[in-house]
């Protein structure tokens, strides 16, 4: 059985390595949601935004280490998908418990009803990779989409 | 030491898996044997057997929602943390618990 490819879940149009124009958490989330919408991952920006903020209210998606993983689970998510935005200068990501500056942000779109387990596995896999400094290092050095995908493919082998 | 753990979070994807990975990585670095059950969006993964639980020196729960089938752990020393804490500080936390237990 052919395994789902990471490049099917993180598409070129949902990867922004420039972070241009992003000055705060709101503009960061809006921008990433817009990328998700344009890529057809979510069918309603507002509904997905609501889901994102709902999850924010439940507990921190700021992970320390300049990483944030905002995520939303709702009917507006057509297929599980991942957007990635790198803000090299750092953006302040506030949460009810403080927050901090983030440079690597992964936004996960999770369907309300988990049907495609393969897709979910890819999301879980990515989450696990974020625990490893080598992986983060490669994300900082990435120049283009292919570098991000290759970083994932290579570092996956070292997962525990 | 022999350690077992359960991770679980609100959406059942990101934090559950990150916490599990953090625990496995920390356990490896500290030279312990650790098995982590993930109670996530895809159900219960890597389910802990009765024997594995019985043989464990202690149990870690990295959860911010309830633990499914938690009566399996009734006779054990359970140390509970939030998934975020574990993700940020697994090695230190694990080392601290080990010290308490010894």
How would the blueprint of this fold be written?
The complex is a heterodimer of chains A (160) and B (102).
Chain A: H1 6-9, E1 15-16, H2 25-38, H3 45-58, E2 62-64, E3 67-68, E4 71-74, E5 81-95, E6 98-111, H4 117-129, H5 133-141, H6 145-156
Parallel strand pairs in A: 1-5, 3-6, 4-6
Antiparallel strand pairs in A: 2-3, 5-6
Helix pairs in contact in A: 5-6
Chain B: E1 2-8, H1 14-30, E2 33-40, E3 43-45, H2 50-55, E4 58-63, E5 78-81, H3 83-101
Helix pairs in contact in B: 1-3
Briefly, what is this?
The complex is a heterodimer of chains A (160) and B (102). Chain A has 160 residues and is an alpha/beta fold.
Summarize this structure as a short list of keywords or feature phrases:
A: alpha/beta, Mannitol-specific EII, Chain A, B: alpha/beta, five-stranded mixed sheet, 3 helices, 5 strands, 41% helix
Distance between the termini of chain A: 23 Å
Q: Roughly what is the average pLDDT of chain B, rounded to an integer?
A: 94
Q: What is the radius of gyration of chain A computed over CA atoms, rounded to a whole number of angstroms?
A: 15 Å
CATH-level-4 superfamily name of chain B: Response regulator
Number of strands of chain A: 6
Number of helices of chain A: 6
